[in-house]
Amino acid sequence: MDNLFRQNEISVNLDVMERANPIFNTAKTTLFLLGSSGNEDAKLLASKLGFTFDSTQNSNNNNTTHDTFITTMIVLETRYRTMNILAEKSGCDVDVDIPCGYASRALSHARKGKRFVGLDLPAVIQDIEPQIMSLVDEGGREFVRLSAVDATNYESLERSLDGINGTLCVITEGLLMYFTDSELTALTENIRKILSGHGGCWITSDPELLLTHSLISKALAGGKSSDSASKMASIFEEKSDTLAGGLGNSVCPRIGCKDFEEATRDGIKFFESHGFNVERLTFAGSMPELNAYSLLKPEQVSAVKEAMTHAACWKMTLTDNAEASRTSSAGKNFGIHAKITGGVLSLSLSGRLDTITAPELLAFWEKINAEHKINSVKVDCASLEYISSAGLRVLLIMHKGVGEGVELSAANKTVRDIVSQTGFDSLLKISE
């Protein structure tokens, strides 16, 4: 039978992108919180996009309490403004924000005449780019570039930086904890390769985000323990649909971590094993006077400042002996071959099933499932090179949509390891 997949018949709209990659919903939460802290750019964007407290802070099963809202707002203002200062201190020519979220940094960079490259999921870029460009004057637009990428795909990142000259300060804020270990490794290798070509540094607050939240929460509660971090993480997990693994990986500790010092040592070892020097820069060393202090009592402000002597952003630079490249060269283009026999949908996938391509598979699945009675799905993975959490999410949607589930066959070691690490081997059938 001819291939049922026909590219010109598939429509990948914003709704499909969102369902394949719901993790972007946390960017809405972050923008609203940042605006609430007094950041005028974030407040303007949140208003322009129609974001409200209920639409960004609450979720289906969780409601944000006042204490959790205030705590998380202070955490976000702390990391956002401190990382801006550290990026400026780095002396790099271009700031590369992964993920840029709803891109309030783009507005401040355009005003200052500082080059800014904002990278995020296709759904985010499609949503925010027209709004950002409408708020930037013509002279400032030359300093802003927004691109849709899959951060685990080096070719995707490389294209987004085409024509960008000068040293790079790569900023990752609110990203690493959502990655599986395989995705984290891919991103780390990609950033190492980018910096080996451009020079510069990588600054991130993510490895100590849970510690930062815990310390600030305790400071606001007068030294008492608080469950604010776990409550906010629960809302973020539900909004972003982080699949079976939840938040956390080899670098970012999971909720309930009992030894942050050990987690920090493990995280530093991870990055050192990939060719990076790691420098911990405490928030207190660069942290400005926060707008959110106006909401606190004087003793709470003092407690927060003291707490931030114990949490840090990480500035990473390449070691002298870092290899020029460990990342593999470009692979096959993504492709789908499909046929239906006796209620069985047989798919042969090639290339990478990731953030960029997963919505395409989801759109095809919804179209074909509406037109045919499908009892099971068999996926030939012989030519599938890589699968990300977005790809797994689409397979799970398919699995839940048919009585006999989804079966994967002939997967390479990379794909099998990812399926196993994420716990999907308990949900999907896997055969040789």
Quote the beta fraction.
Answer: 15-25%
Low-confidence sequence ranges: 324-330
Helix content: 40-55%
Oligomer: single chain
Biggest sheet strand order reads 3-2-1-4-5-7-6
Global outline: globular
Under CATH at level 1, the class of the largest domain stands as: Alpha Beta
Mean pLDDT: 88
Largest sheet: 7 strands, mixed
Terminal Cα separation, in Å?
Answer: 24 Å
The CATH superfamily of the largest domain is identified as Vaccinia Virus protein VP39
Number of strands: 12
The CATH architecture of the largest domain can be given as 3-Layer(aba) Sandwich
* Helix/strand structural class: alpha/beta
The overall number of domains is: 2
